[in-house]
Amino acid sequence: MPMNWGVIGAGGIADRRTMPEGLVPAENANLAAIMEPVPDVLERLKPKYPDARPCSTLEDILADDSVQALYIASPPKFHCEQTIAAVKAGKHVLCEKPLALTVAEGEKMVQAARDAGVKLGTNFMMRFHWCHQRIKQLLDEGKLGTPVMGRAELTCWYPPMPGAFRQIPAEGGGGAFIDMGNHCIDLLEFFFGRTVEISMFMDTLVQDYEADDTSVAILRFESGATGMIDALFNVPDIAARNMLEVYGSLGSAVTSGTIGQMSTGEISLILEQPGKAYDAQQQRDESPEQIVREEGRNIYQALIEEFTKAVEEDRDPPISGEDGLWNHRVVEAAYESARTGRAVRLA
Questions:
Q1: Are 175 and 166 in contact (CB under 8 A)?
Q2: Which residues are paired to 253 by β-bridges?
Q3: CA-to-CA distance for 61 and 19, rounded, in angstroms?
Q4: DSSP reduced 3-state for 229
Q5: DSSP secondary-structure letter at 278?
Q6: Rounded to whole angstroms, how far apart are CA atoms 336 and 291?
Q7: Helix axis angle, 182-192 relative to 130-140, nearest 10°?
Q8: Whole-number Cα distances in Å, 302 to 127, 298, 299, 316
Q9: Structural domains in the chain plus CATH codes
Q10: What DSSP character marks residue 15?
Q11: How would DSSP label each residue in 85-121?
Q12: Hey, how many other C-beta atoms are within 10 angstroms of the C-beta on 51?
């Protein structure tokens, strides 16, 4: 039977993406309950998800014994309290990123899940994009040669809005980098291994709010490869490319529009044959570029299904709470670098 899921904080990304694209179509999941504290939002969601029991309080949804797992999509300032309450109630938890407001809160969440014997995962769904999975395969097979460098860009226009937690560091933990740059960290580490050093420039250049609207980071990974992340809240959506670039000693893989919430895209792939004689003029009779297109699973559906399988098979989630905690350590190191003007090493 499908596993029963509940949602906490259903008015934002949960309603835009994770419920309609992930929980509703997932073959092994059932959307059984929705907790949303804003009455107008809860009323709006009822006809859209008629089979999900509406709940207005955390206590209500935690008391529902039919709910086995919870997707927490509330603002980050609530993640720690809600996750700890959920795992103590015996619920498995898939938490939105960032995992918490601080590393200290994330540590409490991870320990609470361990103590309760339940699964804790983090919603870095972009790992499941077919383009990113294919690039990972090419790297693992050595077809890109020695990994050299990667760049991940996530950009949007995010003007001042009253009450928007992403614009209030005390509620969201930061601005563009903690909201979007953390996805880019997760992707580049998916390819190159964990970050060992990071340096970041940060500012608020366009928007009128406290959080950063401009953040550019340089990273070094345990594989020896380097990376660059640019996360911006101040470039028009129509101008954003949201590109992923991966370079190795045998070629490159470049995507456009795959870093984000969409499951579509393509890869521009250029590969050199191992051992090919060096041509100082780099002359070619024809372009070596290949455009790779596939029909892949929806990234939200893929994550829900894989997390559910992990619960059923009693194994670690595909992107665990520990992964989310590590990601937050890297994010905090990036903000420390921006404040101090110095690169920060991670143990």
A1: yes
A2: 246, 269
A3: 16
A4: strand
A5: P
A6: 40
A7: 30
A8: 10, 6, 5, 16
A9: 3-125 (3.40.50.720), 127-300+328-345 (3.30.360.10)
A10: I
A11: HHHHTT-EEEEPSSS-SSHHHHHHHHHHHHHHT--EE
A12: 9
pLDDT 10s per residue in the chain (347 long)? 899 999 999 989 999 999 999 999 999 999 999 999 999 999 999 999 999 999 999 999 999 999 999 999 999 999 999 999 999 999 999 999 999 999 999 999 999 999 999 999 999 999 999 999 999 999 999 999 999 999 999 999 999 999 999 999 999 999 999 999 999 999 999 999 999 999 999 999 999 999 999 999 999 999 999 999 999 999 999 999 999 999 999 999 999 999 999 999 999 999 997 766 556 555 555 668 999 998 899 999 999 999 999 999 999 999 999 999 999 999 999 999 999 999 999 97
Query: In angstroms, rounded to a whole number, what is the distance separating the alpha carbons of residues 225 and 247?
Result: 9
Tokens at 47, concatenated: 């006809």
Whether residue 345 contacts residue 197, with contact meaning beta carbons closer than 8 Å, is answered with yes
Angle between helices 321-340 and 103-116 (to 10 degrees): 170
The amino acid sitting at 100 is A
